[in-house]
Amino acid sequence: MPVQWDETADVVVVGSGGAALTAAYTAAAGGLRTLVLEKTEYFGGTSAYSGSGLWLPGNHILRQAGIGDSVERGLEYFRAVVGDRTPAALQEAYVSTAPELVEFLDRDPVLEFEYLPFPDYFAAPGRAPGGRGICPTPLPAHLLGARLDQVRPPISIDQFGLPQERETLAGGQALIGRLLLALDGTGNAALRTGTRMRSLVVEDGRVVGLEAEHEGRALMIRAKRGVIVAAGGFERNAELRRELQDMPGSDWSSAAPGSNTGDALAALQAVGAATDLTDESWWCPAVLFPNGHAAFTLGLRGGIFVNAAGERFANESLPYDRMGHEIRAGHATGVSHLPVWWIFDERFPNVPGISQPAPDPEEFRTAGLWRSADTLTGLAERIGVPADVLGKTVTRFNGFAASGVDTDFHRGEDPYDLFFAAGDGPNSCLVPIERAPFHAVQVVLGDLGTKGGARIGEDGQVLDRGGNAIPGLYAIGNSAASVAGHAYPAPGVPLGSGMVFGYRAATRLRLEDR
Fold first, then answer.
1. SS (H, E, C) 177-244
2. Superfamily for 7-279+451-511?
3. Residues 154-203 pLDDT 10s
């Protein structure tokens, strides 16, 4: 029986983060009638929480800022870090298209970008120690008009209920706001919140549309050229997190509760999509908050991380995903790294690093998440680690601070370590822990989203289990298996790669003669 369609578009985009809106804008700017479906009440997804760094090597914004870079150097670095975990052609498609994407976006006056200094994360050939990322320029909120209330608020407001002004949008807020304005300017885009994809519709082997749900009503939506799935991963699905990633639940993810529950993954698998990297996330240390959520933490300026044995286990200044992998690896050692205790002294009035948002010490003490003592022995008792081991750990670390050399984990020897450092000793990353009272704050394994999903081709085409493209179906962002494999090569790779493949997918659809 023929499907009774409720509405029709040329392209349907599922999701509304940076990758989704880039795909939608590319399609709409090319004259295609484009429909964006967002499950939650806000546009922006987890991208709205982000710093909106975009790793797009060799682009003209970098050149204008006097940063010497090229596609060739970027690809050399990316391949050195990722290796052969993902197809070489996919890696080349990402990096080689980066300048083209930036040129395309920059033609629209509302899409403004600037250089964002932030080092690449690995010491590998082709690395840019000062970084090669860009980000959107801040956006005056009044320019969004009624759209402002449709942009997902910053995480401090959205998940922690803290006040924050929104007169000027920066970071991910600016990225989503600018993309919404650009989409509206095309005159070819319709955007809808509160609309969940239930399933994809296949006819004669081709995806021709989808079934959605809006306010309890089923909608059959036809996509004349294709469906682009960009609805995030499954980080807020506790059952899938336990099954696929051996995580205790889903509360520690940065994603908004109720979003990214694996709807996209299930729909893709139902039509035969091959999947990969479902064991991986964009990991990060995260400070556990009294409400059970956890706040992304980076840029340590002091303190050490210790495990249940009271010992350090890694360079605390590692890039966040690399530290996340170190925390995760603790399971294999037999010594629990969950929770980690962040140990520091009285010279720091709050956690000595960047946490979004920052903890309130008194609130955390009441919740038992911030514990203090006048001696290290007393602190060890309060956090349940061996007192003699913690004492030796701190004494050894203080010796490294005095000498300037961390012979255990080499903290302070890499440009990324030094980017955030604030100490005044021989090694600015090594700040001694010696001023009572001593403090311990609980840290868990958080993430910026899962990174496993459908296997894709160079234009974001979803591949079936035989490696063939499923006609009419594309996946990008965290709905696709990441081109970065098990690594997080540099700041802005998640957003940058998602936006590139969104651009490539929509460009392919624009060129189709249907």
1. HHHHHHHHHHCCEEEECCEEEEEEEEECCEEEEEEEEECCEEEEEEEEEEEEECCCCCCCCHHHHHHH
2. FAD/NAD(P)-binding domain (3.50.50.60)
3. 999 999 998 888 999 999 999 999 999 999 999 999 999 999 999 999 99
